[in-house]
User: Fold Probable 26S proteasome regulatory subunit p27 from Kluyveromyces marxianus.
Amino acid sequence: MNKLEAVASTENNGIPNALVSRVNDLPHLGFSEVSQLKKDIEHELERQFDLLSLNNVDLNTPLITAEGFPRDDLDLVTIRLIKRNVNVLRNDLRRVIERLEYLLPLEFESLQRQNSAVQKLEALDTSLVDDDSLLAFAKVVDVKIGSPSHEAGLQSDDLIVKFGTIHALNHNNLYNVGKLVQQQLNKEISLRVKRDDEIITIQLVPRPWQGAGLLGCRIIRI
Assistant:
């Protein structure tokens, strides 16, 4: 890649200036504007992950060889830029959700003053935790036949969007997933998973079985 191509690639992989400007203006945005900003950041995150895939890497792919040298088979400048963008967007998304949580009761009060229907209030509450718009944060692998995961309908390569109350911003490196599994022993946990671009609800009951663990599968971070 020559210098001009590298510059063009960097520009195409950057976060759109309009999105950056809206994030910077976050304290001055209303509820509907912040809700839309949340969706736009999630879409941009998905685009950045797609760019990583186009470069045949993910967030965990090593960029140096076993000998400690930069890999010459990868576009390291582009990949590092995309990883930086992902980190920036994740932080922006966390700020936006915190702002939504602050604005939500104010929006409720405004709707109540306008004698809005209860259904509209419930719709606003749902919009804050819309499962379909949240990013997948983990992948199911190695589902064992006859295990609780298998009986619940989980399949290898399912992408987890929500695991009970746990989602992309609060899983704490999957620690909270394991903690919830222990807390819900022999109790139902509702999962939302992406499979072939569809959102599927799974009811999983962690329990002892003839194999190892309480689920009979492995869950890895993505």
Q: What stands out?
A: Residues 133-221 form a domain with the Pdz3 Domain fold (CATH 2.30.42.10).
